[in-house]
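## retry 2 of 3
previous attempt timed out at serialization; input unchanged, resubmitting
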Amino acid sequence: MISPSSTVTLQPTLDLPTISQTTSAHITQQTAPTTPETPLNGMSIIWNSFRQYNVSKEVIEVLMASWRPGTKKQYSTYLNKWLEFCIKRTIDYSSPKMSEAVEFLMTLHSQGLSYSSINTARSALSSIIKLDNCDNFGTHPLVTRFMKGIYELIKPKPKYNQIWDVSQVLDYLKTLYPLEKLSLKELTQKTVMLLLLVTGQRGQFIHLLSLNGIQLTPQVAHLSLEEHTKTSRPNKTTAAVTITEFTPDSSICPLTTLKAYMKKTETLRNGENKLFISFIKPNKAVSRDTISRWTKQVLTNSGINTKMFTSHSRSAASATKAHQNEIPLDTILNTIGWESAKTLQKYYHKPVLGPKRSITSRSSFVLDSLIGFSLILCYCSYVKI
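## retry succeeded, writing output
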């Protein structure tokens, strides 16, 4: 039994299993955030690194809150990989040699990870690694030069060279009518997809929508968030989308569909404030991953190849269609929350798959009029609060 105050000395003659077990025990007893028996993993490594400053638990909790859930999830992946790397090589995970930390980044490159993934790993390590000269690991000249080399070696490739036609999805959604005859599952998925298409927001925005953030009138719905999103910044105004009634075709009117969904779920909530709840009892609030699965299911039902396109491809499809319909660029950027037109051009404006639809018929015109976000001519408006 190793006492909490002891120091473990690792001899180079130990075999690998012994090294792993001994180093793991050392890391556990030396750095656990709660009790000596609690093994380190993920963000608990960062929690433990803050303890060296002798600050209170309350201060550490505020420091940990500086990372949003999505970032914590990403960091945890690479911190766990780093811990495994250190255990196998008997490395001090918090004070390694610079060469050892860079070698870890090299192993990620050798595994075929993207520049973005390796850069995330760099950021994660920067939160725990202490250098002798107090420099930040992520901005150390050797690290920045290494990352520049990774960038040059890994040529950027767009995720999609083409994108699906929004009209194809709207054709399917039109079949989910009348609303009162739909199952809760069908109504839920239709509401999610329509809101995603016409707001242009991330799935995170839809996931975080709550009843308190929705103001309804007979002709308008104001959608805003009570929580921070990935694009939230200090002193930055919070975007809210105002949806008005789409009179040309009530079968694909998001306002009508939203009202129907809220009415159908009213008696199922049991006090749940989040807008979207599970259509399976006990009807609790759903996760962001569930929103993504619902979106993918609608794409599949619409005939979109979901082996080629993920649920996030909806952003590119909406942005492309809005751009094709000559929606003002400023409107697109403001509504989605992009700061630069380069984002639209680089990631989201893609050639549309399939035959080009004619807009001579009223039906096609209605479908093309609905897509995108903030369609000033007939449909949505953008506001800031």
